[in-house]
Amino acid sequence: MHSQSLIRLFSVAVYLFMFTPVAVVVLLSFNSSQFGGFPIEGFSLRWFWNLADNEAVMRAFRTSLMLGVLTAAIATTIGILACLALIRHSVIGQNFFNMLLISPVLVPETVLAVGLLLFMRWLDQPRSFAMLLMGHVLLALPFVVLVVQARLIGIRRVYEEASRSLGANAVQTFFEVTLPLLMPAVFAGMLFAFTISFDNITATLFWRPAGMETVPTQIFGMLRHSISPEINALGTVMIVITVGLPLLAGALARYFARARI
Amino acid sequence: MASLTLAQRLEVVDYRPWVLLAPALITLVLLMVVPMAIIFVFSFYEFIDIALDRPAFQFGNWQEFFSDRFYHYAIWQTLRIAGITTIVCILLGYIPAYYIATTTFRHKWLLMLLLIIPFWVSFIIRQLSWVHVLGSQGIINATLMWLGVIDQPLRLLYNEASVVMGLVHFLLPFMILNIYVSLEGIDRNLVSAARTLGCTGWQAFREVTLPLSLPGLAAGCLLCFVLAGGSYVTPLILGGPDDFLFGNLIYDTIMVELNWPMGATLSTVLLVLLGAFVVIYSRFMGLSQLYKSLN
To answer: Looking at chain B from residue 117 to 156, which residues have their Cβ under 8 Å from any Cβ of chain A?
Structure first.
C-alpha cells in the first residue's frame, strides 16, 4: 500500500513537470508588466490587443493557417489513396511500401530538410511556398497513413462487397460506402497533419523562402531579442488553437456518436 | 500470353492499386529518396566561396570531417546529450506509465488525455516555457528571491542541464506512451501467478512485468535518442554557446556559412549515425513495435 501511494505521488509530480512550464506561459501572458517574466504585476489583456495590431505576427498567422490547411488536404488525400491500395488491393512488396510510407519518421528531420533544400538548389529552383508546402506534406504523410490504415483495417469488406454486388462501381462504392465509414479517421488524419504543419519549426527554418515567417519561426525570431510579453500572448493563442481544436473535435465526435444511438 | 495485346495485358495485371499508390510514391521519391541521394552527391562537391560550389568528385569534405577534431567532439557531445536525455526519460517515465496501466482510477481516460495533450502544445512554446522556469526572471529564481534565500538570480539557464531539461520535456510523453502500450498488453494473470507462487510484489515486477515491458521501453528509447540526437532548435533556445548538437553544426554550415558541400557531408554523417541505431533496433525488435507505438 505504501509503495502504491509513492507511485501515485511520483506520477503526479511528473504530470506537474509536464504542465507547469506551459501553465506559466499562459499565466504570464495576462501579466500587465512590461517584461516577459516574473513578478506578476496585475491582470491585463493588452498583450493580446498588441498582438492583433502586430502586422508581422498576423501575416505569420495567415501563412501558418494556409500552410496547415493545404498540408492537411493534400497529405490526407494522398494518404487515403495509398492506404486503399495497400489494404484493399494486393500489391507486390506490400510490406516494403508500408515501410516506405512510414520511413520519413525514421529519418532525422534535419536531414530531410537539408535534402529537399539541396535538391531544389540542384534544380536551380528558389525556395518557395510550394516547396515548404510539399515538405510539410512529406512530414505529415506517415501519421496520416498510420491513422487511416488502422481504421481501414477495421472496416469489414462486406459493406463494400454488398455495394458492388448491388451494382455500384468502384468509385461510387468508395464515395457512398467506404469514405463515410472512414470519416473519423479522415478527420483525425487531417487534424494530425494540420497540427504537424502548424507546429513545425525544425524543417521550416531551412525551407521557408526569405522573408516568409510561420508562427513558430516568428516566435523563434522574436525570442532572439528577449522574451517579450507579446510572445507569451502569442503562445497562449497557439495553445488554445492546437489543444482546443482536437479537444473540440473529440468532444463533437463523441456527442454525434451518442446522438446517433 | 504472347498473343495478348497491351490492353489485355494491362487487364491481367491489376494496375489500379498502382494508380492509387502513385501520388504517395511520387511524393516520397521526389521529396525524400532523391533528395537523400542528392545529399550524398553534394558531399563530394567542392566549396569555393560563400554560396558557391562546383560539381566535382573529390574527398575534401570527407577528409575535413575525418581529420577535424571539432567534428568528432560534436558527435561525442551529441551522443552524450541524447543518451542522458534518454536515461532521464526512462527514470521519469516508467513509473507514470506503470501507474496509468495498473490504476483502478475510474477516469483513466483523463490520465491518457493529459498524456496526449503535451503533443498538441506547440514545440517552440514548450521549449521557451523553460526560460520562464529557469531564467533569471523565471519562477524558480523569483520564488527564491521573494523568500529571501538568494539575492542574486541563480544562473540555471543556458547550460547543458537546461538543454537536457528542454529535450526531456519534449520527449517524455513519447517514452511514457511506449512503455504504457507494452505494460497494457501484459496479461495480469501472469503477475497473479507469480505472486501465488511466492514472489514478493517487487520480485513479481522484476521477473515478470519488467521483462515483458522491455519492447515498449526499447521503442521509447529509440524514439527519444533519435529525436534528441537530431534536434538543433532546443540548444538554440535553452543552450549556451558551448551546448550545441550535431544538428546545430549542420544548420550553421548550411544556413549561415552557406557551405552546402560540407553541410551535405555532415548531414550524411548524422543520417548514418542515427540510422545505425534504427537498424540495430530493427534487427532485434522489428519495426512493427515502433509503428504500434506511433499510433
So the answer is: 117-118, 120-126, 128-133, 135-139, 141-142, 146
For residue A234, the domain's CATH number is: 1.10.3720.10
Q: Do A25 and B24 touch (CB under 8 A)?
A: no
Q: What is the ipTM score, two decimals?
A: 0.87
The position carrying cell 498488453 is B185
Q: How many domains does chain A have?
A: 1
Domain membership of residue A10 (yes or no) is no
DSSP B137: T
Q: Which domains does chain B have, with CATH numbers?
A: 63-294 (1.10.3720.10)
CA distance B178 to B173: 9
- Give residue-wise pLDDT tens across range B188-230: 888 888 888 888 878 888 888 888 888 889 989 999 999 999 9
- pTM value is 0.88
Q: Answer whether B92 sits within 8 Å of A243, measured CB to CB.
A: no
